[in-house]
Design a protein that fits this description.
The complex is a heterodimer of chains A (189) and B (112). Chain A is mainly alpha-helical. Chain A contains six helices and two strands, in the order βααααααβ. Chain A has one domain. A two-stranded antiparallel sheet of chain A has the order 1-2. In chain A, α4 runs antiparallel to α6. Chain A is elongated. Chain B is mostly helical. Chain B has a domain of 64 residues. Chain B has five helices and no strands. In chain B, α1 packs antiparallel against α3 and α1 runs parallel beside α4. The radius of gyration of chain B is 17 Å and the shape is elongated. Classes of the chains: A mainly alpha (189), B mainly alpha (112). At the A-B interface, α2, α4, α5 and α6 of A face α1, α3, α4 and α5 of B.
């Protein structure tokens, strides 16, 4: 059982950081609802947990977009040397070479590469609002609504990026680099 | 912090946080569109070659966001501001950013 380095990094980016981030949104919505809408008084310990949870979520989002833009995207958009006919290690060129798959790049990647950045920006703002106002966020109706809207924006941006990331990797996986042996298998030949 | 006395806690810092993040998002949208429309701007945004113009788009957007946050926070640290206006301004900026980063509308705006 082997995996290439590029595959491994892509898995960490999408199925690690991205998937955990998506799962984490339910907790963030619960924190905001409980704190700012239902008016449940948080103890100091609970408030610290809420702050840490939202900082953690924002950190996951930053790591996901930074890894995506500065590690995986260069592999994705690499230009094949002249004479290369097999685009397996050049995902962008593999997709754009055929009209049946070019849309995954023209819409999917072009959208994902930009809109994904709304997630860490918005999540950082949500974390800052909760840390600053804590249990009194509900007293400031405009800020409370803005926090929910920003959280929803981050969720949608993460969803778009995650969906297209998965589809892009299905049609043109980012692959290559050294092989990492995860487990020795048995031949069935 | 969260335990600031009621009389000293204003919505100013929060409004600064909301408006600054919207400014960062708008910058990202505007630069993405300009980079897509004009090859010269795309080349100027190419701050790190492996990532291409995306590096400039995102780095500048982050810079604008952080500077705006710092300046607005300082300005509104002790003030109460009209959150309705700030909120709608932020919504407008994010809507423009969303339109400018969605490939079909990017193409439409460029007449492609």
């Amino acid at each position: 059982m082997e995996i290439t380095l590029r595959d491994a990094v892509t898995v960490i980016h999408g199925m690690g950081l991205g998937a955990i981030l998506l799962l984490g949104f339910s907790g963030a919505f619960f924190i905001l609802y409980s704190l700012a809408f239902a008016g449940h008084p948080f103890t100091v310990r609970q408030q610290k947990f809420a702050n840490g949870y939202l900082i953690g979520l924002a950190t996951l989002a930053w790591l996901a977009v930074l890894a995506g833009a500065y590690i995986i995207y260069p592999w994705y958009r690499a230009v094949p040397p002249s004479g290369v006919a097999n685009f397996a290690e050049y995902p962008k060129h593999l997709l754009t070479a055929s009209p049946t798959t070019s849309g995954w790049h023209d819409i999917g990647m072009e959208w994902k590469e930009h809109c994904a950045w709304f997630a860490p920006l918005a999540l950082t703002a949500v974390a800052a609002l909760v840390i600053r106002y804590g249990g009194r966020l509900g007293e400031f109706r405009g800020l409370r609504n803005a926090a929910v809207a920003l959280l929803a924006l981050a969720f949608v941006a993460t969803g778009v990026a995650g969906f297209f990331g998965a589809m892009l990797n299905k049609y043109a996986p980012v692959r290559g680099g050294p092989e990492i042996v995860l487990m020795k298998g048995e031949g069935h030949g | 912090m969260a335990d600031t006395p009621a009389d000293t806690l204003t919505n100013g810092p929060g409004a600064a946080t909301v408006l600054a993040v919207a400014a960062g998002g708008l910058t990202l949208g505007v630069l993405a569109l300009l980079g897509d429309a004009f090859p010269a701007i795309s080349a100027a945004l190419n701050l790190w070659k492996p990532t291409g113009a995306l590096s400039g788009v995102t780095d500048i957007a982050i810079l604008v966001w952080l500077i705006a946050w710092f300046l607005l926070w300082r300005r509104w640290a002790q003030r109460s501001v009209d959150m309705r206006r700030v909120g709608w301004a932020a919504v407008a900026m994010f809507v423009v950013a969303a339109v400018f980063t969605f490939p079909p509308t990017m193409d439409l705006l460029q007449g492609k």
